[in-house]
Amino acid sequence: MNNALTISGLTKTYKDFVLDKVSFTVPNGSIVGLIGENGAGKSTTINASLGLIQKEAGTVSILGRKELDNETKEQIGVVFDGSNYPEILSPAKLNRVMRNIYHTWDEQTYMRLLKNFSLPQDKQIKQFSKGMKMKLAISIALSHHSKLLILDEATSGLDPVVRDDILDMLLDFVQDEEHSILVSSHITSDLEKIADYIVFIHKGQVVFSKPKDELTEQYGIIKCGASQFDALDKSDIIMYRKMDYEWQILISGRDKMQKKYPKAMIIPATIDEIMLLYVKGEKQ
Q1: Candidates 3.40.50.720, 3.40.605.10, 3.40.1280.10, 3.40.50.300; correct CATH number of 3-215?
Q2: Could you tell me which of 40, 82, 119, 244 has the fewest CB atoms within 10 Å of its CB?
Q3: What is the pTM of this model?
């Protein structure tokens, strides 16, 4: 089994939205970042993959199995944005609940994570801040020996310090190469820190699925005037956008393009900028 998650041709139709034949993989031992604007289909993809909504077409294989049986579910840790557990409970009471839900529940790991995250055991969850609730949800996801973590906007609305703590934790999780993570986020700077691969969904379709290093090391943006734009080889242009005072052109093979256009200003492209040009730009 080379992939922790394989999604092939996933399709779901709503009145005003279609998830259209989405396909990508989460290789074992990797972190895959799922990006796209709000409403692009990230959550629909995750929910359909987990069987929380019914798909119309396509196949999903999780940890080598196409059926989500109880044994497979125990090996998946899922964290959604927002409160995941009854707010009248405390982490200590949740521990007792989880012992009855998961055969693989590891109380020692759970208590250690609560301590590491400075989460009080006996305080009701409703008294927790959003960051504390998210740390609790991730602690639970990591305390039943999950092999695959699926996080949907798990760091949204958190302050940079808390986000950094969580990102470090996710990096630690995949160190043994038997654990894998799919994380959807609109905070692309987080994914630039931790992701091995980036899957970009736009209007229900996968625009690209690429190694993150290829995006950050190979992609670039040419900023130029109209005359320079007209002189470019149009086959070099992936997407372009006309701004008030300049043209922005997304290209690949930054070093090669710099040699081809020595007078052009070519800057590295962030994942955010790549996404923006695909969403708001035009094709030649």
Answers
A1: 3.40.50.300
A2: 244
A3: 0.89
